[in-house]
Amino acid sequence: MQTLRADLPTPLNALDWGPVAALGQVPLLLVRHGQTLANVERRFVGRTDVPLDEEGRRQAARLAARLRGVPRAALYASPLARARQTAEALGDPLTLDDQLMELHQGELEGLDGPTAFARFPEVFAAWMSDPASAVIPGGEALSACQSRGVAALTRIAQAHPPGPPVIVVSHQLLIVTTLLAALGQPLTGLRKLTQSNTAVNLLGWSEAEGLRVWVQNDRAHLEDPPAPDAAR
Hints:
Elements: E1 2-3, H1 18-22, E2 26-32, H2 37-41, H3 54-67, E3 74-77, H4 81-88, E4 95-96, H5 113-119, H6 121-129, H7 142-158, E5 166-170, H8 172-183, E6 200-206, E7 210-218
Parallel strand pairs: 2-5, 3-4, 3-5
Antiparallel strand pairs: 1-7, 2-6, 6-7
Helix pairs in contact: 3-4, 7-8
């Protein structure tokens, strides 16, 4: 977990949404889905619809326990099974939003890392040198995924006033590219941001400032035993 803004009391955890709302921002809890077998096998599954595995379901249950009793304005998720199942563990009502889906990984879908690197070396070379312009064959550009993520979170935040947080469950690359945009960092920073399965990021949105990141990759509920704030 890392607190990224210096103008609130620190350290923060991702459930410290009150000070963000007090600044006139809409608090957003942006969550990555739980683990899948494809994550374990390190396969590319942007739009491939894989479910949570047993560990992913355990992670979602621990996230739900941590969020129990936390007021919420709304709950949104990508319709892909791994995100939807993670969100369903948090309760209802749930709104599914296609714009929260993962980067479309085209011809990489289903491939493991070594196979993908061998078949498409030019794609990974482009990701390393100029990820903003890299496009997966048959898939989506990282810059397009980023624009989609920023637009989706902005639209969702605009539908709610500052107050209890809006929970949004999505996917690693959509989350990381959106965080980079909110931090004002280029897509070359992609490899510097970590997102654990069911990690929680605290963002705020206002008309004046747009999206701002307060905490990223908070995984306190996955600590064993759970951290003291995991049952809050």
